[in-house]
Amino acid sequence: MAVALDNTYAAGIMFDAFVHDVDVSIQALTKYVGGHSDLLLGSVSARNQQAYENLGPVYRQLGLAVSPDDCSLALRGLQTLAVRLEQLEKSTLQIAEWLTNHSKIETVFHPALPTCPGHEHWKRDFSGSTSVFSFLFKDNITPAQVETFIDSLELFYIGLSWGGVNSLAVVYPDVERPGKDHSGKLVRLKIGLEQAEDLVTDLENALAKC
Questions:
Q1: What is the Cα–Cα distance from 150 to 156, expressed in whole angstroms?
Q2: Mean pLDDT of all residues in 123-140
């Protein structure tokens, strides 16, 4: 059985897919490799010759191709990928840890935090973390208050993408899990290259208004 993996979260660096017996590793190069929210591109990497030969006919049938300009933007992003990932990891951890101590927050879902479900798997398999994580408001906070929080943010843009230089925030209005209902109370943050202290201040001010 062949195994395919979306390795975008780890930027293809912080999780070695082929060492973990993944046959096909996929990335949205739009995210960390591009790094500036101005590129639409993806990659499919094969572990060995057999996987490569299996992918070839599909590639040709779909007529996949990319422009030289898009490739140029990806190459540009690769030149700064290491320094961006280092800063993003540092800032994101700082903000996630700050949120864990806030009175209005129930749980912070960041894999590098020991309190996060699945942390032991992240610690076993990953060499680092990146800039996307979520947190859940406590039960006494209403979905309307969460919307007020989102609308009160000044440095964070409202958006679903990630991997660029700007910080983003979005609330999930309808998220159900077995035995749990997070509807309207689960927020995802994507931390950018702004100063972490400024982002914490922005979050603190917005939390005070909800």
A1: 9
A2: 96
